[in-house]
Design brief:
The complex is a heterodimer of chains A (about 110) and B (about 110).
Chain A: E1 4-7, E2 10-13, E3 19-25, E4 31-37, E5 43-51, E6 54-57, E7 64-66, E8 76-78, E9 87-94, E10 104-105, E11 109-113
Parallel strand pairs in A: 2-11
Antiparallel strand pairs in A: 1-3, 3-8, 4-5, 4-9, 5-6, 7-8, 9-10, 9-11
Chain B: E1 3-7, E2 10-14, E3 19-26, E4 30-38, E5 43-49, E6 56-58, E7 61-66, E8 71-76, E9 85-94, E10 99-103, E11 107-112
Parallel strand pairs in B: 2-11
Antiparallel strand pairs in B: 1-3, 3-8, 4-5, 4-9, 6-7, 7-8, 9-10, 9-11
Classes of the chains: A mainly beta (about 110), B mainly beta (about 110).
Amino acid sequence: NAGVTQTPKFRILKIGQSMTLQCTQDMNHNYMYWYRQDPGMGLKLIYYSVGAGITDKGEVPNGYNVSRSTTEDFPLRLELAAPSQTSVYFCASRTRQGENQPQHFGDGTRLSIL
Amino acid sequence: EDKVVQSPLSLVVHEGDTVTLNCSYEVTNFRSLLWYKQEKKAPTFLFMLTSSGIEKKSGRLSSILDKKELSSILNITATQTGDSAIYLCAVSYSMEYGNKLVFGAGTILRVKS
């Protein structure tokens, strides 16, 4: 069972570069989420999606973009990397079946912007 | 503003001790409260609580929700070094498109042998 898979696991970027963090899930989950986790802080929601073609902003969307063309994939794009975006990024997914279901997380992408 | 506050921020105990972790919240449209354990990588799901006063139990871990006090506790009895982790509390609330989670900062637990 693959669950939620994130790539890459680590990446170092220079200021101003762009990159896409990949997230894919094989559980046929409708809901998908992107979070960032900074030291000593909880996870902050960047963007989320309730299904293919539908995305919406979370708490901290500035500097990021997302798309959801398929149920399985939910990539996160950084267009102009800034040092403030140094963080660990987690993707999560959840089934739409039933009101209360937990989110399942990928192993994270550790991103450093220098 | 929706918020979740966990306490303590960190603690160090010896194997065999019992610990209690606290979580309080201020969230509109509350749906449920969740506990996650985070070791080196992904947070892993422990409990989901929706009803007040009903204890959920899994081995040496248990948790209960108090909706009147807007809080929850996570108890770990007979702690082991493998319990060392960050414990995250999150509250699910309803939005226009589905439910979202707001997380606390976490409690860092270290169990010494």
